[in-house]
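Our consortium's second objective concerns turning raw sequence data into structural hypotheses that experimental partners can test. To show how far this objective has progressed, the report includes one record in full. It was chosen at random from the queue rather than selected for favorable results. The single chain below, 133 residues long, was entered without modification.
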Amino acid sequence: MPNLEIEGRLVRKLDLQSGESARGPWERRDFVVEYEDGNFPVSVCFSAWGHDKVQELENVQVNDRVKVSFNIRGREYNGRWYNDLRAWRISPVGQERRPAAQNAAPYDVPASYDVPALSTEDMPADFGDDLPF
């Protein structure tokens, strides 16, 4: 399945739903994200299932810009089909999860990983004739 992501503004958090199933307790909280599709804003409702995902949702506030990674699920009930957009990551935009490192080099290369700069002397004198034409 492709990696589905959407970036937009969190416009609403719906009420927390919880209950008990045969597999134990469960939590779910739906939320609405608005994003631009051409000239018009579009609103989409996602579901955060499980305690961990509900807590991720608590880390962002209404009107924050977020990136939502999600899966699509569909199910049939009484002859009708219903779709469910299940968020598996909810991140504030611009605050992606990265390891915290003081004075990290670009691309988070550890300081102990010494890579010398390349020069023209490092290039081979003859590249050979590897062109296909």
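The partners drew two points from this record. Strands lie at 4-21, 24-37, 40-49, 65-77, 80-92. The mean pLDDT is 80. Both points have been shared with the crystallography group to help prioritize constructs.
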